[in-house]
Amino acid sequence: MSSFASSLVSGVSQGLLWAIMALGVYITFRLLDIADMTVDGSFTTGGAVTAICMMAGYHPLFAILVATLAGMLAGLITGILTTRMKIPALLSGILTQIGLYTINLRIMGKANIPLTGINSQIQNLFNWQLPFNASRSAVALMIGLIFTSVIIVLMYLFFGTEIGAAIRATGNNPAMVRALGANTKNTTLFGLMMGNALVAISGGLVAQQQGYSDIGMGTGAIVIGLASIIIGEVLFPKINFWFRLIGVAFGSIIYRIVITLILRYSPLKSYDLKLFTAIVVALALWLPYLLQQIREHKARRSNIPSRGGV
Amino acid sequence: MLEVVDVSKTFNPGTVNENPVLKGLSLKLSPGDFVTIIGGNGAGKSTLMNIISGVLFPDHGRVYLGTHDVTYMPEYRRAKFLGRVFQDPMQGTAGDMEVVENLAMASQRGSFRGLNWNLKSRQFAYFQELLASLDLGLENRLHAKVKLLSGGQRQALTLLMASMNQPDLLLLDEHTAALDPKTAQKVMQVTQRVVSADHLTTLMITHNMQQAIQYGNRLIMMDSGKIVLDIAGEDKKELTVEQLLAKFVTASGNALANDRMLLS
Lengths: 310, 264
Ligand SMILES: Nc1ncnc2c1ncn2[C@@H]1O[C@H](COP(=O)(O)OP(=O)(O)OP(=O)(O)O)[C@@H](O)[C@H]1O
Ligand SMILES: [Mg+2]
What we know:
The structure holds 2 protein chains of 2 kinds.
Chain A: H1 3-31, H2 38-55, H3 60-84, H4 89-108, E1 112-114, H5 136-158, H6 162-172, H7 174-179, H8 184-210, E2 212-214, H9 221-235, H10 241-265, H11 273-302
Antiparallel strand pairs in A: 1-2
Helix pairs in contact in A: 1-5, 1-8, 1-9, 1-10, 2-3, 2-4, 2-8, 3-4, 3-8, 5-10, 6-8, 9-10, 9-11
Chain B: E1 2-11, E2 19-29, E3 34-39, H1 45-53, E4 60-65, E5 68-69, H2 75-78, E6 82-85, H3 99-107, H4 121-134, H5 151-163, E7 169-173, H6 181-198, E8 202-205, H7 209-214, E9 218-223, E10 226-232, H8 233-237, H9 241-252
Parallel strand pairs in B: 3-8, 3-9, 6-7, 7-8
Antiparallel strand pairs in B: 1-2, 1-4, 4-5, 9-10
Helix pairs in contact in B: 3-5, 5-6
The complex binds adenosine-5'-triphosphate (ATP) and magnesium ion (MG).
Residues 45-46 of chain B line the site of magnesium ion (MG).
């Protein structure tokens, strides 16, 4: 494979694994209308829990299951802070994220757990032998595709249910949801738990794929999630809920491909990427307001007085 | 049906902004009553409605719906007894969701929300029939996002949603105030039809005196947190706007001031 093709494949498989995180952010950011800062912490929690489960000899899928539960717990904490203790959602997420730093270190016992090399007897999803001597990146692609597709289907089904619709409506119009008899404290809590469960699954899979869990692996995850959502919304038609969810995964893949290509073909180093991503997301979030200002500006210029004032 | 007993509410108690809004107000509605409420700005009409619906809790007094004491029942739990339409057309519906999704959610008011599909094909014909009865062409726009509808269409949709499952009490807080006169007229027609069809007990705040006289079987006037006028039956039927204004001055000692008041 040419180096360009291999960076494409690597970008796609990475993008699929991170897409699950972006889908989690989609639940909180787009459906609940909350910028949930828990994500940076719960992504690492997913990686940390997966790593210690695998070190303890558990099956790598079981490790992901435990990570899912840990992610739900993280979302529950943020949910309690904001719905039961009335701390603003943004601050609640930041508080959980800070607290999780300590908890993640306690879970791992150290800042980094390698899952390869000396620990190569450990089972890892990404070491599975596929028929036809499939390459390691093909295996990663398969696993990413399976997890992301299953999660998209489950999300589509869930948000079509009565409780799922109530969660979607909560981000849209909480007063109406209460008037129609649903407890918006609980719908918010559920949404935060689901979102962070997905984020932790993604963290667990990324840890397995990269072969280590690290205390800093979730730093900036929320921004990457937002970038993926926005890229998906700009480049992918928003015909229905299927397209929206697939668009988020698509955005995550595009983001990863761009990052891989930048690292390979530009003088930027990996530590430059966070600034790059922050700038891109800031510009993208500015875009709707900018377009509105341009429209108003044009309208003002074409609104020429037909006669002089007083 | 509804019984409000000696309810008081003061905002910001113990501060310089202390504002006693309701002062020992009592009100009793019989089943099938359609009561209109008028009153000046800040008289406490919306506050009364918020206390009935559980958005606010009273400092003193009780609220009963049927045989239930709902004084401190959370808003989302007493929603099973109540249908509500608000002044702001945005407030009663979820704009990013489809017309049919909004109707479906309204049909679940008061029942447990589980993992059944929100949209049930067996309900579609019923929803379509309801929408067709509005005569606004909405029956062909089941899958349109509600934010694409006009204010009047949204209010009419909210009315359908609020009256679904026959609530024990329908609460309307100036629900035509944000609409142009023609649309307001149309929404009032729908209101009248929905209320009479199911004999809904209704409490309607309005700033339009003519509306207050024309609709319902009983008229209440509020002034600084109290009911100052309560006219029902034959007396109400013979009422004119001029008489109503005069009665208000006698009852309250002031001229009626409401910057949205329509005397027509
Ligand atoms: N949540 C609140 N906190 C503090 N003060 C409030 C609150 N809600 C209402 N008030 C005050 O209570 C008073 C009564 O308000 P309310 O909305 O009940 O009046 P209203 O009769 O509905 O008037 P309008 O005709 O203007 O709608 C007003 O002075 C208002 O400023
Ligand atoms: Mg009011």
